[in-house]
Amino acid sequence: MEQDVTQALRREEKITLALRALYEQYGFRKYRMGKFEEYELYMENKNFLKNPNIITFHDLDGRLMALKPDVTLSIAKNTRASDQSSEKVYYLENVYWLEKQTGGYKEVNQLGLESIGRLDAFSYYEVLALAQETLAAISESHRMQVSHIGFWVALLDGLSIEEGLRKELFACVHGKRLHELKALLDGAGVAPFAAELIVQAASLCGGFEDTLASAQRIAISNGMTDALNELETVYGMLKQKGCAEHMRLDFSLVNDCDYYDGLIFQGYVEGVPRALLFGGYYGKLLRKFGKNLDAIGFAVYLNELDVLFRSQHGADVDALILYDETADFNALLVQADALREQGRRVRLERQLPEDARYEKLYRFTENGLEEVGKDA
If you average pLDDT over residues 277-283, what whole number do you get? Predict the structure, then answer.
């Protein structure tokens, strides 16, 4: 019996294989890392981690080790990129978190890629294009929000907003709490003109071209203009490729400012209530490792796909066949294998399991298969 191996794969597994092939078409090579790193690497860079609650243990030498909570940090630390040679890698790795709310451990499957070296606008375009294609492979109903941390840094520097105020300010901006933001600025004694400009910047969200034009009208420094020019250049290339339709420019996207210091983006698909894809430019992190290079990349949290596809297509099997002790087992196997040769997933049971998720329910009798119900 011959059967295409891919027919036995779940939808998320097929997507993962397709994306790996896509990334390799663009010259990204597979990156592999061990499950453990010294805890010091993550402790010194906790602000970069999506979940800072690290699972630790001591090895036989007494070193404090960590189950890896992140892949990008390891890539950034160990990259072979230089002024003369860039590095493009993708990865499919499990990371491990300690969930503070539940006190339980969580294993998260991550797919992502990184581009490191002396990069330019074309390099940024390439990563954003791959991010868009990644979302499109998961669902036709998707969108990507894009922002630029450099725009905000230049604005706040130009208005002489002190560092101590910025973290709370960014929290208000990210939460789109504009009234709270205005009250915060008023309470800090920020001049009315400056406060109004910051609130205007926090409100910039919508279609890419219109929002970009609005941002250009409030640019007060070369740094802001440079950030907007970079956005415009990358968007122009994406539009020419035909993958800018689902992009929105949203300057409330200011999370992870400790390390992202340029383009930043998040991707969403219908059916998942939170961002599925996270990415951005993180040259600051490379400089922390003593490497004066550019870096941009993204990660997709694949665990969300299982939830998404189970909600869309709830069946674990296409056919659930019930039989009893009087069944002719040879005839039963012939019927089950015939369905499998058609590419259908088949499960045989004496009784209907409580957690069964199936397309069609059959009962095997002396007359063969009899359809007796549908579930999903």
Answer: 94
